[in-house]
Amino acid sequence: MAASLNMDEVRGAFPALKTDQIFLDNAGGSQTLGTVAEAITDWLHTSNVQLGATYAVGKAATDKYKAGYAAAAKYVNAPVDEVVKQKVLGPSTTQLFRNLSYSLNFNPGDELVVSAIDHEANIAPWVDLAARQQLTLKWWRPDSTVNPKLTAEGVGPLLSDRTRLVAFTHASNILGTIHDVRGISKLVHAVVPQAIVVVDAVAYAPHRAVDVQALGCDVYAFSWYKVYGPHLSMLWAGRRAQAAMRSLGHFFNPSASLADKLGLGSASYELVPSLPAVVEYMKGKEEAIVAHEAKLQGLLLDYLKSRRGVVVHGETSSDPMLRVATVSFTVEGFDSQSFVEQVEKDSNLGFRWGSFYSNRLVEDFLGLGKTGVVRVGMVHYNTEEEIQILIAAFDKFLCPRE
């Protein structure tokens, strides 16, 4: 049995949790560890110089920056590879995916397979790439609109010997559903060995340990500001993906580093050295986090499923093997905006309504209105008491079980 979290220690690690606000919008961005804020302050106070200098402070600054990159690699279990540096940090996952798309060159008529239920960050770059290079865009649409899932069986018929890239999400930022990255990657590479598998892990990385070697994908990206860290993102790319890239960097810097190819100097110097604090905090907590979040989502899902007029969109099971603790729903008689605003009016609850940059999923695939879904984004520092407070607030507006 996994060890349980010490909630006093967990909540004590986040300064924002000392306030009365109940943070249930974590799928949009988590609260930041105090140790992360301290590392950023320390950099600005003691190391705020350009990298690569040979004087003492310059050397110390460079070492701290390198330590941030090393911690990022450790977090995803990136392979140790001194020939091809496989990670890049930048301002957002959206930006890094866009940079990646400009580094790839395919031939007219080559094919891109893109999930229709993803965040736009992992859709728009490939739509634009297809238009720029006269590629064929194939939409990967799950069969079900009730509980849509991306599966190896679903993508198989879309693959051909012209497939060059397959893009999808590890976990939906709306549905919470976890997809089988390993199984999908294995199938894609078996059918089309040269195809690049690109995975958006923004909604997955805050909830689960990451191992890119075990997953078998070629590109994996997420945002640290949703993983208790600074407003920074990370993209990892393996050999197959890097072999297909051209460098976007300066001509006089032909380094094999992915940061030189895609980064364009966009990783903030003061933020990168704070990443070791995130990795240190998460160490040894992975199983306990999964168990705790399973309890939280179980409480909320059981409640929502018991109420008339409520539709939970996506995975309705609280099984942590099937979903992360991001729960979205709609309520009969309310648009999502008015429901959230009514509940928030007399409470200190913070949660959201909208499409959350997954407009193709919410508006086109699920057929919902412009105000989208009500989304509750839970993470491990939330408590069962907070979910009970949320349920009590919902009780004022939702119909009881028939």
TrEMBL record:
<dbReference type="InterPro" id="IPR015421">
    <property type="entry name" value="PyrdxlP-dep_Trfase_major"/>
</dbReference>
<dbReference type="Pfam" id="PF00266">
    <property type="entry name" value="Aminotran_5"/>
</dbReference>
<dbReference type="InterPro" id="IPR000192">
    <property type="entry name" value="Aminotrans_V_dom"/>
</dbReference>
<dbReference type="InterPro" id="IPR015424">
    <property type="entry name" value="PyrdxlP-dep_Trfase"/>
</dbReference>
<dbReference type="InterPro" id="IPR015422">
    <property type="entry name" value="PyrdxlP-dep_Trfase_small"/>
</dbReference>
<protein>
    <recommendedName>
        <fullName>Aminotransferase class V domain-containing protein</fullName>
    </recommendedName>
</protein>
<feature type="domain" description="Aminotransferase class V">
    <location>
        <begin position="22"/>
        <end position="390"/>
    </location>
</feature>
